[in-house]
Amino acid sequence: MTHRDPSSAALLDALVDLEHDLAKYLRLPFAFLPQDAPPGDVRKALHEALVSTRRTTAGTRSAADIWCGFTAEMGEFARGPRFDALSFSVARVLAWARAVDDEDAQIDRHALEEHIADVKARIAAWRDDLEAR
Amino acid sequence: MSPPRVLVIDDGESYARVVAERLPELTLVDPKNGTSPPHVEDGPAAIHFLERHAGKVDVVLLDLQFDVAPERLLALDGESSPKRQKRYQGVAILREIRRRFPSLPVVLMTSAEDVALVDAAGELAAQSMTYFLGSDNLDTLRIRVNAALQESSLGLEESSILWGSDAAMRGVRRRLSVLAKGRMPILLEGETGTGKSFLAERFLHKNSGRKGAFVTLDLATLPQDLVSATLFGARRGAYTGAVADRKGVFELAHEGTLFVDEIQNASPEVQKQLLLILQDGRVRPLGGSHEIAVDVKVIAASNSPLHDAVAQGRFRPDLYMRLSPSTRVRLPPLRERPDDLAFLVRRFVARAADEPEMSPLRDQVGAAAGLRAGADVRVALGRAAPEETHDALVLAVPEPAWKQLATHPWPGNVREVWMLVYNLVTFTLVEAADALRAGLALSSRRLQVDPGLVGELLSGSASLSPQGSVAPAVAEEEAPLALRLAVRPHDSLNAVATDVERQYFLQLFKESGHDFSRMAERLLMDPEKARAVRLRFNQLGLKVREITGR
Prior knowledge:
The structure holds two protein chains of two kinds. Helices cover 69% and strands 5% of the residues of chain A. Chain A contains six helices and two strands; from the N terminus they run ααββαααα. Chain A has a two-stranded antiparallel ribbon. In chain A, helix 4 packs antiparallel against helix 6 (109-132). Chain A starts with 5 loop residues before the first helix and ends with a helix. By secondary structure, chain B is an alpha/beta fold. Helices cover 43% and strands 12% of the residues of chain B. In chain B, helix 1 links the parallel strand 1 and strand 2 (27-28).
């Protein structure tokens, strides 16, 4: 039986939550959006993904809220190359926020979905890393 | 047709939004809890809603993870941390839905791999009416919802056919639906009591769209010298005793269905003649001068794999091929679908209580318990949730007796279950009626089923192997009972047989000194089976008081 130190177990736990709360809900609005959806629908999906990412009875959390919650919870412990890579990936997705309110901005859906998929991939890679220890 | 109604169970609103915005062919069920788009936010609320409105829901979309307060979580298992309970809450909710609403279709919005580490998940995934989304996309969701709705539309019960919830039987249902409409012959294989002739008439013929009659040819009872006349028909004078034209079964079933029962017993001559008719689609009646074209859908039934008979040289391979092995359907024996037993017992209890000969007894006992005439009779099985008694009599089968039923091999399959349940209902009601006559009052609407009675009723078939062969048993020779029986004309052979049996029982009862144990010893070689003998005695309409004058 393998024993994981308590702090890495907590990190693993936080990553599982992040995968669900952030990666899944970033992806969901696009997953069910038809490929030929008009730009207005794509913009609406982007809003849903970034701004009203997780809507429950407890309230609405944006993608930025969820990410910042993770960094605050994990603090310095999470820092390292895996964190840096994920941080970059999340920042790249959050940067699409400028297109939410700018109706003239073109949204390259393919690139956007790739960026979103990358967040999930980096969380999964980090989890695998921890689970292998 | 109104759009299918979807209940979304999700702590967030994402999936309800997907349905509202992307699947206009579905209607969201509104639980009236103020959510928009409407959905239910946790397991307890969902179960509460379904308990009252399950009939208003056609399919459930269920999220996996629920970030809700701990008191709003259904238990996943005894060991899971609160975090794990939240993460896999959808599995706990699914399990509760399967337990309470087995025929309600559910699509769990995740992949089976995502819940592979949850013990209960594999078992739940294998159950009918349960679908995993797999991948998040609109087409997949649409396919899963449609598949769930389609399976649900099959129903557990349909025009008195009890399909049950077992996946194999539902597969049979789907396959027979397709085959019924085609022109090809159908080969039904299944042990005795699996419902071959019932399905042939009530399902295949009924759904065939054919205008002609359903005709049965039982090869086990067909005398050899009547084979040709039975199959082809005969003109008057064709043979000694042919005093009038007689139509053969193929002519009778023209534009309809011919059910050939026990085809594995067909003699070489019958096989040869069947082959000729199937090849040509024409028959020439004996003594007739010309052939008649017949358009008949043939359904053949065998209680053993016909392929084995071919391999052993007892059945013509060319006829086997004509019967189209590709349309062979195997009806699974009951022991291969044990989860359907409770469903069958429940349905049969209700059906037995409604039988014309049973309903006066039911109403007599029901009236003593303060129920209106025609009230339902239900059954509570073992430790399963107790049945409501405010409007019904409930037969309570104790846990040990239910275990006996659940582990019995049921060599006679569904027919055996029906007979056992019929006897169980009869005897339990008779005992209650006897108690009332003796001046005792019913203390409740729950009538306890005697576990000993279940054992006795099962013992009749316990020695049979599942294939129907009788296990070797050595019985002592009994001195034969000298009988004088009067056979009176009746409407049917069945009525004659019952009358003869009644006389036999009466005479034996008298010769045994009114002692059911002695009768049981005589009839069943076991004095302990007096209860079963008395049961049959009552069923035959014999009354101890009238016979003994006591």
